[in-house]
Amino acid sequence: MDARFTAEQEEIRRTVREVLLKRCGPEDVRAAVRTGDGYDGGLWTTFAEQLGLPGIALPEEYGGVGCSVTELALASEELGRALAPGPLLATSVLTAPVLLALGTVRQRADLLPRLASGELTAALAVPGPSLATALGLTGGGRGDWAGGGRTGGVQARPVDGAWRLYGQVDQVLDGHSAGLLVVAAHAGGYARSRTLLFTVRASAQGLTRVRRTALDETRPCARVQLRDVPAELLGEDAEGGAGRVGEALVTAGDTVATVLAAEAVGAADRALERTVAYVKQREQFGRPIGSFQAVKHRLADVYVRVRAARSAAYYAAWATAHGERVGGPALAEALEALRVAAAEGVQLHGGMGFTWEDDAHLYFKRATGDELLFGPAHRLRAHAADLAGLFTEGEVAV
């Protein structure tokens, strides 16, 4: 493995950071999350038109840049540092790989160029609190994660040669603003139930979307209700497509974990930087608290965690680009590093760290929110251990 980044990769990191320093400071983030979409549309346009960020990992034949997950991870690391809200994760990381893997020739030609240009945003709707399981991060990805039988989740049935969806998905990342929804639904009735994916346009009749209150406002989620909503099957064949759905989601899941790990590392690094700068200024007993040995030890421990998580995230990016699956353990390491860095930041900022006026709590909310959506860390590690066969039957992982 060559751990060095190319000049082009470093340029991507530098360019994204420069744009964010100018356009995505803490006050800009607070203003963006209060908008209807939950992000700065102008900044998204800049990323799309000037940097090609939405299509950075899509093939050139669909209007993408043709880079690997490594470049996407490096850009996401910078987005994590700024806690920049935006549809990149939902559109380019969660949904685009599934469309690329399962879509027909016509569907790919119609949708992927629009995603790559930033003209169209998308969201993946998985019923229940099962996104991490569906992606194969905390479970096998082939279980009954989309709801059960005749009831629960989203049901699909053919009507006059077309598909109609019924049901509700309570937690869809960026589901309130996406122009396209990819919905996991049961088809075939109770006896022959199978999970398929369907595309639903934002303008579809019978579709209701409501943005929900979220712990982390930079990760807006929506409740999506489908009442006799017209949908299009993703792929050619309903009978043979069910098996490919699980495989496509699990494959996409490793990319998701890798990108999220890099993003969490960026956030953890920035949280540590802010805390170090603060303890050099805050004084107690006539001296900066950063000069106290106990504070130095605590921040040194955080520094080691962040560096270890960065190494894991970079290795995961390289390995994923070469067909290996190590995203889950890397994500676990990164989420823990972010949680510890954010918690120490809140503690060392004192009472101010708990207030809305200070930015320390934003990083803590990002850490907690990501663990709720894609973790927690111990489940990520446990599933990775199961896949690797580390424990024989009868042994218990502690």
TrEMBL record:
Q: Which cofactor does it need?
A: FAD
Highest taxon of source: Bacteria
Give this protein's Gene Ontology molecular function annotations: acyl-CoA dehydrogenase activity; flavin adenine dinucleotide binding
Q: Where does the Acyl-CoA dehydrogenase/oxidase N-terminal domain lie?
A: 6-119
Q: Where is the Acyl-CoA dehydrogenase/oxidase C-terminal domain?
A: 259-382
Per UniProt, the keywords (alphabetical) are: FAD, Flavoprotein, Oxidoreductase
- InterPro entries attached here? Acyl-CoA_Oxase/DH_mid-dom_sf, AcylCo_DH-like_C, AcylCo_DH/oxidase_C, AcylCoA_DH/ox_N, AcylCoA_DH/ox_N_sf, AcylCoA_DH/oxidase_NM_dom_sf
Give the record's family classification. Answer: Belongs to the acyl-CoA dehydrogenase family.
Descriptive protein name: Acyl-CoA dehydrogenase
Source species: Streptomyces phyllanthi
